[in-house]
Known about the structure:
By secondary structure, the protein is of the alpha/beta class.
Amino acid sequence: MRKTLRAFGLARLMHPCRGIVTWASQRGFMSYSIAKHVPWSWVLEPFTIYGRGWKCRWFPTESDALGHRLFFTGLRVWEKETSPVMLEEMRRARCAVDVGANCGIYTVLGCTVNPEVRVVAIEPVPKACAALENNVRQNGYDSRVTVLNIALGDFDGMVSFHEAEDSTVSSLAVHRKGRRGKIIEIRCRTLDSVVEELKIEPDFLKIDVEGFEHLVLGGASQVLTKFRPCIILEVIHGEPAAAITGALSRYGYRFQNITDRGLETRSEIVPVKDCPNWRCSPNPH
């Protein structure tokens, strides 16, 4: 009990340093090893994410799997190869669809670096969607972001969904072993039907749906034909890379693996260890 009270007192005494710690850590002036000495409660309070020439606020929750990493490293470590490519696409976009938005990191960052972009953020996990809505609202982006608490696939209807304890790995894989959580019933839509209903013209898609990217593409034939958006998606080992390659090849897309050496052009999408993200762009007509 006394040890707990001393720790609590020390945390309160150190709290004025919290902003300095996250700024210095994100800039690389402090080692990530300092994290074990910082009170866990610090990470659960709102903090600033710093970029080159921009900054935004992040409002973490208990279920936010990214908050701890963002607090200490910002974009310096987390998806360090992908985030610069993602932000560049968001800067160019007029209308982006963030499929598998989770708590809204790329939605918020996109609106921060591009004050003109409109974003449709789609997140099926209720608790992650609530955090997404809060991050959007707290940053003042409500007027430019439409949040949908649904899944995307190749049909419109209801579907069983695995809501994992770690919301970043929730998916339609209801029989996947080794991931704790529960099965819920959620609404599933096609991207084509969402785009038609909202009357938007997306020129950029971010798709991260834990192995079901091919189903999202299967429900996006009109979008891929008419609007031909640039796409960034994730493909990890065991996922249907060939199906994704086939789906996008039919619409004349080319593939670039996002690596720490830059964009590497490939003839097909294959899982690449440590470099799971791909930029897919339409060939010029």
